[in-house]
């Protein structure tokens, strides 16, 4: 039976292949560096294999051609069934539903408000991953795109205020990161 580290490595490889040639917008790094950093940050607060797997996979359904069924099949090959299903559930909770393609008549503010309401009802584990996602994204966006950063950071702050179930220490760190980034813009 493979160790958790071996499983996580296979999940990283799957996510990297899924993200294919995607790169980080502001750094030119392969996209996979972001989900791995999110996973490593989550690992400091939660070592559950499903949470760590979902952290790696959190953008796969949203940003790649991989379907829910393909992801489920892969996870069932990697993890015991309960863990695979929980991982998939977390990834689905972290996948934006109120996207421009589905709601073309809604403006960004309305879509983001609906996402915040949805994520406020998400599980503690999904919220913990989202805190780590915000912590990883905020400094890079602040440094590389200050014009967009102000809007993004205000959306993140509102989101973290609404998400109260995740790890409280990581939530506090998310608030601190967002507020520090906002103060850099002033």
Descriptive terms for the model:
Hypothetical protein af1432; 186 residues
Give your account of this protein's structure:
The chain has helices spanning 4-19, 33-43, 49-57, 60-63, 68-78, 81-94, 108-120, 124-144, 146-162, 168-185. 72% of the residues lie in helices and 0% in strands. The chain has 186 residues and is mainly alpha-helical. Helix 2 runs antiparallel to helix 3 (49-57) and helix 5 packs antiparallel against helix 6. The protein has a single domain (4-185), classed as Hypothetical protein af1432 (Orthogonal Bundle). The protein has ten helices and no strands.
Question: What's the CATH H-level superfamily name?
Answer: Hypothetical protein af1432
CATH top level label: Mainly Alpha
Order of helices and strands: HHHHHHHHHH
Q: How many domains make up the coordinates?
A: 1
Beta-strand content bin: under 5%
Structural class: mainly alpha
Mean pLDDT: 96
């Amino acid at each position: 039976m493979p160790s958790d580290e071996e499983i996580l490595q296979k999940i990283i490889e799957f996510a990297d292949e899924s993200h294919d040639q995607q790169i980080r917008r502001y750094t030119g790094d392969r996209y996979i560096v972001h989900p791995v950093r999110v996973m490593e940050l989550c690992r400091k607060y939660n070592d559950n294999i499903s949470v760590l797997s979902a952290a790696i996979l959190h953008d796969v359904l949203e940003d790649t051609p991989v379907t829910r069924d393909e992801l489920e099949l892969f996870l069932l090959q990697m993890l015991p069934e309960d863990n695979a299903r929980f991982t998939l559930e977390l990834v689905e909770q972290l996948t934006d539903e109120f996207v421009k393609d589905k709601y073309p008549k809604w403006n960004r503010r309305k879509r983001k408000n609906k996402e915040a309401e949805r994520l406020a009802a998400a599980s503690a584990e999904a919220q913990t991953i989202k805190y780590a996602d915000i912590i990883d994204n905020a400094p890079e966006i602040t440094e590389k795109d200050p014009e967009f950063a102000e809007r993004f950071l205000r959306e993140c702050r509102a989101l973290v205020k609404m998400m109260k179930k995740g790890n409280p220490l990581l939530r506090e760190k998310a608030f601190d990161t967002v507020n520090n980034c906002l103060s850099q813009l002033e």
